[in-house]
Amino acid sequence: MSGSILDMTPFIPSDKGLETSSAPDNAMRLSQISAKLSGQLAAPTLRSLESYMRVINSYYSNLIEGNATRPHEIRAAQRGDYNADPAKRDLQEESLGHMAVQKWLQEEAPDLDRVFSPEFIQQLHQKFYENIPENLWDIKNDQGDVVGRVVPGEWRTQQVAVGLHIPPDSESLDELMASYCSTYNPKRFNGDRKLIAIMAAHHRFAWLHPFLDGNGRVGRLLTDAALKAVGLDSYGAWCLSRGLAHQNGQYKKSLAVADRVRQGDFDGRGQLTEKGLLAFCDYMLTTAIDQVEYMSELLDLVNLRKRITGYIQARNDFRVQGMDKELKPAAGLILHTAFMYGEIDRAQALELCAMPERSARRLLSQLKAEGLLSETSSKSPLRWEIPEHAEPWYFPGLAPLA
Fold it and tell me: Which domain holds residue 326?
């Protein structure tokens, strides 16, 4: 296949196409509800959620690619408890590798110019593959024969086929990826077109298929970074991959439909179908909105307070697996206050206990020992956390438990 950037026009849906689409309204709504969620989360709480959600994002993004390692298996691997089956162990390590890249992204907080650069995209791929077992670098055909090997951070050097789609020749990738980055940097677009461009870029990255393998996960990590960099500050407290995995068939079908060539005179003026790209962008925006609304409801102060209370009741009824100590009801007020403000001063926490100081200190020590609160020093404020044993009560339905 030829290697011109014009082969994947239209770059984003035309103004005419968007006039009859819900995509602009959905882009605006996504910005609004993401900002609203950011406003209701204290900065330390958002950081705790981002750390917790790395497992969730890793689980769902890898699930799309056929790695069904469950969250509890990923957390077991974090503790060094790997499955005895070598194949399952490799998949646990793959999930941890994905999480390591998410952590790096959150620490780096790259801006749009950096995100949309060939060097950054190659760095994403390199960091992902350098954190997973080398035997997962081999590419095998349906018969199990090795037909290629990934070189971390390097564009592919051989021709590939992805279903019915034949991506561009490998010799063109240097030039194509440079053009891709300059074309899709959201700084080139105004208003709602910024988010629409990011969603269009997600498809076009898959269409280019620049790496021999890993394009799906790297493409989603790239979109994660772009959504954060464009100003969706609550991204990390929610993740797009969860919605995509829940509709995995629709996600892959939408990608494939947008691969099609232009379908006649009423399908835009580019080489590829504008209707397919428009439908894909709208699908991605709708999926993102669904995930923000889902997490916003979970994190609503009243709703979360009820679930924290339910968790404490379950503890005292000995219904929380692995936890055999009761929790005093005062713990609910402390945990909810810590969530609201991200952290709570020790003196305030002692006061909220409304009990003799010795008993109050014993309760705070228990909450720290059980991972419900954390500290950076013996005098630091206490920060709200999400230990594994509280997860089913805090966030029911967010991810499978077993």
Answer: 301-394
- Divide the 402 residues of the chain into consecutive groups of 10 and give the mean pLDDT of each group: 84 94 97 96 95 97 96 96 96 97 97 98 97 93 88 96 92 97 97 97 98 97 98 96 97 96 91 96 98 97 96 96 94 96 94 94 96 92 96 93 73
Taking a C-beta distance cutoff of 8 angstroms, is the pair 95, 279 a contact?
no
CATH number at residue 339: 1.10.10.10
CATH label of the domain that carries residue 169: 1.10.3290.10
Residue 96 near residue 130, CB atoms below 8 Å:
no
| CB proximity list for 15: less than 8 A, separation 6 or greater | none
Rounded Cα gap, residues 51 and 91, in angstroms: 20
First CA to last CA distance, the chain:
45
**Which among 298, 313, 339 is the end of a domain?**
298
Out of 298, 324, 341, a domain closes at 298
DSSP 392: H
What angle in degrees, to the nearest 10, is found between the helix axes of 248-258 and 43-64? 70
Per-residue b/e over 99-136, b at no fewer than 16 CB within 10 Å?
Answer: bbbbebbbeeebebeebbbbebbbbbbbbbbebbeeeb
- Name the domain count of the chain: 2
| Phi, psi angle pair for 118, to nearest 5° | -55, -35
For residues 50 and 30, give the distance between their C-alpha atoms in angstroms, rounded to a whole number.
Answer: 19
d(Cα 44, Cα 56) in Å, to the nearest integer?
Answer: 19
Alpha-carbon dihedral sign for residues 257, 291, 232, 374 = negative
DSSP letters of 267-283? S-SSSB-HHHHHHHHHH
Rounded distance, CA 127 to CA 104, Å?
A: 9
Residues 65, 131 within the same domain: yes
What is the number of other CB atoms lying within 10 angstroms of the CB of residue 173?
A: 22
Distance of CA 121 to the CA centre of its chain: 16
